[in-house]
Amino acid sequence: MKARRNKKQVPSFRKLLKTSKVKLENKLKNKQFKQQSTLKKYRKEQRKLRQAVKDAASKNPIPLEDPKKIRPVKRLEKEEEEEEEALPLDMMDEDDLQLMKDLGQRASFLTRDLSSSEPLHGKKRKHERIIDKYEKIPRTLQTAPEKELIHLLPIKDKSGIIPQTREKPVIDSDRDEEDQKEELELEEEVIEEPVRELTIEEHLIERKKKLQEKKIHIATLASAILSDPESNIKKLKELRSLLVEQDPDVAVTVRKLVIISLMELFKDITPSYKIRPLTEAEKSTKIRKETQKLREFEEGLVSQYKFYLENLEQMVKDWKQRKLKKSNVVSLKAYKGLAEVAVKSLCELLVALPHFNFHNNIIVLIVPLMNDMSKSISEMCCEAVKKLFKQDKLGQASLGVIKVISGFVKGRNYEVRPEMLKTFLCLRIKEVEVKKDTEDINKPKKFMTFKEKRKTLSRMQRKWKKAEEKLERELQEAEASESTEKKLKLHTETLNIVFVTYFRILKKAQRSPLLPAVLEGLAKFAHLINVEFFDDLLVVLHTLIESGDLSYQESLHCVQTAFHILSGQGDVLNIDPMKFYTHLYKTLFKLHAGATNEGVEIVLHCLDVMLTKRRKQVSQQRALAFIKRLCTLALQVLPHSSIGILSTTRTLMHTFPKTDLLLDNDSQGNGVFLPELDEPEYCNAQSTALWELHALQRHYHPIVQRFAAHLIAGAPSEGSEALKPELSRRSAVELFETYSMAAMIFNPPVEFSNSKKKEN
C-alpha cells in the first residue's frame, strides 16, 4: 500500500504531458511568487538577527520581555530626542540643577535606565549575562528558498517507469537588480549623447564608401579561392555569410554581388565529375595527405554549394510570399530584384553544371518558374532550358527536365504557358533512328569466355587474346565515351514522355492555347512516331480541322503535322490526304495581308512538304491550281511575303515542267476556270493564264519585279532572265526572312537621285 501511495504522489510523465500550456504557466508563476516571498522573509530574518547581535554587543541590549514588540533603533533614538526636548532646562533654577547632578551621582532605582534590565550592582558578571541574554533571543530557522524541479524523460525498468527530475538553479535576484540598474544607467548615458543627423549628400558618400569596402572584401575572398581552391575552401563560407548582410544601406547591392560572385566561383572550381559521399569503409582506411586534402575540398565544396542553392531558393520564396522578415533590412520592392538575380544564377548553373551534384534540385526549382506570372523570369527560365536541350549530347539532363515539365503540365491540368512546350522543339533527337529494331542496333562487344577460348584457340592464341582484351578494356575506360545503346535508350524514353504529353493535350484539352505548340512539336518529331499511331493521329487532326474551333494558324499546324507524318515513315501507308490539300487550297486567301504576316511562313513550309517532297503523289491538275492561286495571293500581301510565294511558284514550275502552259495566252484545256471552287482537282486551272505576273512586273519592290520577269520568261536557269545566285540558291523561307520589313527598313535600301536643281 505504501508503494502505491508513493507512486500516486509522484506525477507520471503522461500526466505532465497532458497538462495544458496555461496550467504550466500558472504553476511557474506560483512557484516564482513563492520563491520571491521566501527570499523576502529570509532577508528580513537575517536583518533582525544582525540587529540583535549588535544590541547584544552594546551596553544597552534589547529588552527580552516581549520580543514581538521590539522597537527599531531609529524609533528609540527619536523618543530619546523628544524626552530631551521635553525637559525645560532653561526654566530651572541653579539649585534644582545642582540637586539633579547630586542625584545622578547616587545609584538608586529612580535614576536607573529603565530600558535596561541589568541589576544595579552587576558589573562583575556583565560579559556572561550578555551571552545569556543573546541566547534568550527567539530564533528563526534559516530556510533556504524552494528549488524548482525540472521533469525529465522517465526511465523504464523491470519494476516499472521511474520518473526523473533535476533541480533548476536559483538566480540571485539581488545581482539581477544590480545588473538592471547598471544597464539603465548605461542606457541613460547613451541616450544623453546627441546623434548628429547626416545630410543626403553625406549619407550617399558614406554609402558609397561602405559599398567600396564590401566590394574589395568580396574580390579579395574570391581571388583567394580561385588562386588555391583546395587550401582556401573554408573562405567560401565566409563569402556566403555576406548573403545575409544586415547593413540596410548596402544590404541589397552586397547580396546581389555575392550571388553573382559565388555563381562564377562554382562554375570555375567545380570538377567535371559528380562527387559521391564516402562509405564507412573508405572513411576508416588510411590515406595519403594529398588524398585527404582532396576529400576535404570535395566535402567542403558540396556542402557550401548545397547551402548556396538553399539560400537562392529562400530568396525566391521570400519574393513569392511577399512577407517582411523580422530584421526588416530588405524592403518588399527589393525582393523582386534579389529574386531575379537568384533565378539568373540558377539558370546559369543549370546550363553550366549538368553533371554536378544537386542538378535535379535545380531543375525542380526552375521548371515552375517557367510558368511564372513575371514575363522576364519566365523567359529567362525557358531560354535556359532551351540552351540545355541544345548542348546536351547524351540526353541525361534533357530527360530529367522533360520528366519534371511533363508532371508539372499534368498537375496544372494543362493550364500553363505555351512557351513551356515550345522548349521541346530544341531537343537533339534528329540523328537517332527510333524506327530501327533493337537487333539492328550495334550491341556492345562481348569478350570470349574461358571455355570458348579453350575450344577454339591454342595456348599461345589464348595468351594473345587475353592481352588484347585487357588493352581494349583499358581503351574503353580511357575514352569514357557513351555507347550508342545508352544514347538510344535515353532518347527513346525522352520521346515517349514528349509524345505522351502531346497526345494527352490532343485528347483532353483540344481548345487549349497549348495546341499550336503541340502541333508544331508533332510536325517536328513526326518521323520518329511509331507507325501504329499514324491512322489514329491523322483522324484526330482531321477532326480538329473540321470542328471549326481552331484558329487559322492552328489549322495550318494540323496540315503541316499531317504531311510531316506522311512524308516520313508514312510513305509505306496507303493513305490519300486529299482532304488536307483541299483545306489548304480553300484557306489560302485567309492569310493575313497586314504587317503581322501571321501564317505565311507555315504556309511556305506546308507547300514544300505537300507538293515538292510528294511530287510523285501530286497530279498535274492539283499543281496547276496551286500555282494559279499562289500568283493571285502574291498580289495582296506585303513584299517579303510576295517574294517567298513567288519563290515557291518557281520551285513548283521546275518540279512540274508541264505547268508552263499557264504562261501561254491560248487556252489549252476544256471548260472554264472556276476560281471560286474549293476543289483543286476540278477547278479547270489549265484553262487560265498567269496574268498576275504582268501586274507584279510593275511592283514597287525591285526583287518582286525581278521574280515576276523571271517567271514570265519560263523560270530559266541561264540567260539574261535568270536569277542571281543569292536569289536562286535560297529557299522560300530564307528569302521571306531576309527581306522582312519587321525592322521598318526597306530591303534593298532606296537609292537617292543626285539630280541638281536648275538655276533660274
From TrEMBL:
InterPro entries for the chain: ARM-type_fold, CCAAT-binding_factor, Noc3_N, Nucleolar_cplx-assoc_3
Basic and acidic residues bias: start-end ranges: 65-78
Biased composition (Basic residues): 40-51
Limits of the CCAAT-binding factor domain: 555-708
GO MF term (any one): chromatin binding
GO cellular component: nucleolus
Region annotation (Disordered) ranges: 30-94
Top-level taxon: Eukaryota
Keywords, alphabetical: Coiled coil, Nucleus
Ranges annotated as biased composition (Acidic residues): 79-94
Coiled-coil stretches noted in the UniProt entry, renumbered to this chain: 450-488
GO annotation terms (biological process): DNA replication initiation
Segments forming domain Nucleolar complex-associated protein 3 N-terminal: 214-308
Major subcellular location class: nucleus
A Pfam family recorded for this sequence: CBF
Subcellular localization, as worded in the UniProt entry: Nucleus, Nucleolus
Similarity-based family: Belongs to the CBF/MAK21 family.
Protein name as catalogued: Nucleolar complex protein 3 homolog
Gene source species: Heterocephalus glaber
Encoding gene, per UniProt annotation: Noc3l
